[in-house]
Amino acid sequence: MDSFGNAGAYEGPTSYILPDGRWCLMPDFFGCEKEKMGYVPFISETPGVAKFVRSADVVHFSYGFKHGGVIEITEEEYERLKQL
User: Fold this and answer.
1) How far apart are CA 14 and CA 33, in angstroms?
2) pTM for the full model?
């Protein structure tokens, strides 16, 4: 965690496998002003190797998600959600 910067300010991580087989680790960052808090994505480029690199350019959120999970949805489900 030391290489993540402000190591003591992360909690509640979640992780999942990307469609290309890489792993995404998303700890919840709380070491800043409220508007910038939330999940910060880190990607492991090699499946099965726990060497994660901060990757905000790969995974992006419009606002700070916190303490949740990730599930895969179908294109049909995505289209329905966009209508809400």
Assistant:
1) 22
2) 0.68
Amino acid at 14: T
* Pair 70, 16: CB distance under 8 Å: yes
Phi then psi dihedrals of residue 12, to 5 deg = 50, 50
21, 47 contact by CB (below 8 A): yes
pLDDT in tens, 45-73: 887 788 888 887 766 666 667 777 788 88
What DSSP state is assigned to residue 67? Answer: S
Residue 69 dihedral angles phi and psi, to the nearest 5°: -150, 175
In sequence order, the 6+-apart residues with CB closer than 8 A to the CB of 80 are none
